[in-house]
Amino acid sequence: MTPSRISSASGAAGYYAKDDYYIEGEAGAPNLEWGGKGAADLGLAGRVSAEDLRSVLDGKNPDPDGPALTASENKAKHHAGWDFTFAVPKSVTLLVLAAEKHDPALADRLKEHIMGANQAAMGYLEENHAITRVRDKEGGVREVLTGNLLYGSVMHVTTRGGDPHIHVHNPIANTTKNPETGQYGALETRQMYRWQQNTSLVAARDLQDRLMSEGFSIQRKGKLGWEVAGSSAKLVAEFSSRSQEIKAAAEGLEAERGVEATAGQRTMLQKQTRKAKGEIVREALQAEWAERAEKVDPGAMMRQLAARSVERGRDVTETVLGAMSTGVSRIRQVVRDLRGENERIDHYTVTVRDRDQEAQQLVTLGLKSAEEREAVFSKHLVMQKALMASSAGMTYERLKASFDRLVVAGAIKDADQKVVGAVTTERTIRREQEIIGAMEAGKGKAPELIARDDLERALDPVNIKERTGMTLTGGQIAGAAMMLGSRDRYAVVEGFAGVGKSTSLRVTNEIAERNGFKLYGIASQHRFADEIRKTGVVARTVESFLRGAETRLNAGGEEAARLKRDFSKTILIVDEASTLTNDTMLRLTRVADRLEIPAVRFLGDRGQLGGPGAGNPFKAIIDRGAERAEMGEILRQRHAPDHLRDAVQHMAHGRFKEGLAKLAPNILEVGKDGDNAAVAQKVVEAYLDQRQARDTQIVVATNAMRGLVSVQLREHLKNSGELGAREHDVARLYEKKLTRAEHLDARSYALGDKVVDHKGFQGVGTPRNMVETIIGIDQVNNLLKVRGEKGGERLIDLNAEADRKSPSFASFTERAHPIAAGEKMVWEARFGDRGYERGGAFSVLAVDSRSVTIRHEGEGKLAGKTETLSSRDEALRFSGYGYAMTADRAQGATFDGVVFELTSKVGEAANMARLYVQASRLSQDARMVTDDLARVSQLILQQDGQKPVALDHLRAAAEALKQDERDRERGGQALEKDRDMSKDMGRGLDTSMSRGPDKQRSRTKEQQTSLQQQQGMGL
Questions:
Q1: What percent of the chain stands above pLDDT 90?
Q2: Cβ(1008)–Cβ(974) under 8 Å?
């Protein structure tokens, strides 16, 4: 399904009310048919007249006595609607043409099948993505799923180039009935566009199922493409001149700009290369098509009809690929089935013994992939992953039925209080309950680390100055007081970006050591751990700490006892705690409890970006009463202009509207029609201008923009002579970043993908020969065959891989990129034995066919060191251009100057958290580049960018809240208690340990009551 905006109601009325706009003599017999529950509600059925279509697209009810279709009084502001077009593969069109000539009854059924598949897709769209927006009493805007659309459907059979091409237009009027009010209002199409791939897949799988019922087999091509098996490739190419024209235009654009054309740019090219409508007689077209077909591939159309089976068709797509034998695969399957090695059992297959095992395996794949990344996720994401992994003919209805059976069993729960169609899993809820339970159980369980009076004296600003020479802010003192004085095992120090947490840590460590305790730091990334070490505190990554502790604890005996003794006088500092996932936090609380660590202190900032996995446990424990101190005095921008400092302060406190207003003088706008290439060019121009005055870093929203900026900036540097003329191509590896569930599924891989065993990063010296190439895939037995660079081959059993606690390898795609002398680069992987850290910067000093000379930059141990590497050194394959970094990688860093990019085109990535991280990196100056400031501001103000907590989104908790007014009152009392929870350690200590007055970071009465309801429900 391809969506497009309808700009003219009158033009659309004439266009859609024809059988086919190229065919003379049939325009008087329109076959546009009404569809959708909205049409039924308005009494519209059967054929559509041009006049009625014009009326509904204008926002007017054809029945003057009927309900109004729009609340808009200004016709100029009313948007007519959208056209969702379902185009069948070329082989299906050719099949219909052959049947029209040789089997008219079959041709009629095939057309009915096409319209039936179109109806399945439109039914999916209506059921799941017909949404309107309403404003609540508090002035907020929320989305309401209406479940009704008003549209028409019509089949066209030609392209504008005159080729046969069956496609169905579905013009949708911009109106839908709100079930809450019974009134019609405008459609909100954001979710329609977001999930348009789902709609396409629903139509494709439904049509495949119908064709297979007629005896035709299907061959899938890539992720989304497919054709009728046995169709003539020559004919498909012959009658695809329009596609070839668009492809040629896209290739020209790519050659001009040096990057791959986006889907949006291809749509633009489709419109730009569109020919004017012609007037052609159908009989003449059919005769011309038949003549061309016979000339290109004699008898091909008859052969395709003859290939029809009397039995149901099959999906004949190859499932054993490359250097894997189909015969061996069959024998292997028998053996593995007998041994049970091909049986895939997981939590969900045990929960529900689904009679449709194929559908359940697909839904389970989607579910496990989704819940690994988010605690709350769209059910449409689950369906998308299931549909993309499915075989031909696997219908949406079968998948939905399997999904619904898991809902009934309680494995999936509605979590749609903030996002339409959102769900969570029972497993996720249990994890969050255990994390919160550990926090609650630890209240009052920490020993008095330092006597109250002693701590008050130690934190007296005068005494701190005398002992350390440092002057601390009130927030820094409050943070130290919380780390050393809280009587809860788990407590929080929340500090905004740039408040000087490191200074507070230094003082905390000094006081702890003088009193017989030690600080031990852990962080989610090596670079964060490095920052902790700079304060004099021993530190490592969270994963390294947990693996070591779990291994020794599980070993038991003296090994476990020794570890407990080692941590008996330890204050565990968890830095950048907002990046922790549910799984990591759960492991951490279990280890901390088993080790009986006296105090665990979480340092972080809820306002910044979360980690790559599911959950937001840092926010969850704060919202549920974890004792908390706040460090609010931002120091990073003290040398920046007042308006930039104020902008960051506003954003830190959740006031993004005010923050954007302060930032406005430093915002560069390309314009709403500017594409990503224009945005990248503006970023480069701003960088080149600002770097003259200060060291400047480019921070972008996505990796795609990072690549685009790098290409354009490199072009400038080459032209200016800052990059050497001689280049060397590096076979760069790009990680596929599969979820665990996808990692364990052979369908996730393609021939030619690269595999790297994780042990390769831990080896000593080079060459390591660590990169292997996938040369065979057996999807039936879930096996991969890989070949090393020295020729050795081995099988990877992905079912056996599932028994491992963590993946043994990562997968990559390969693409060459040139490097030259003068290049700024970064490592994209960690080579611990060589001291190369992920994100570590280096410059290329010289390059030739045999060697690359580099100099390490930054502040690490290797800073300033020069190395000469072989041009074939595998480490170079894990490097990338260092001209720009994403906001996620920039988090925690400080730069003199920043040029950052955030546009309306990135959708959900245009949010408060990302803007806050980007804007708060500056210490002196910044420029923001965007396309449409009004639109991107609207997106930012609607999306906080915070990873969700499942317990906050449960529908059941919200419904219970509405039913119990007494709990609402109890929630208010709990809120008052919460506000007083951060205790003053003494009159001499700063009272900023309390939650503070900021509304954006405080719980509302309703939120607190919701938490009380969840506790009452056992959630």
A1: 69
A2: yes
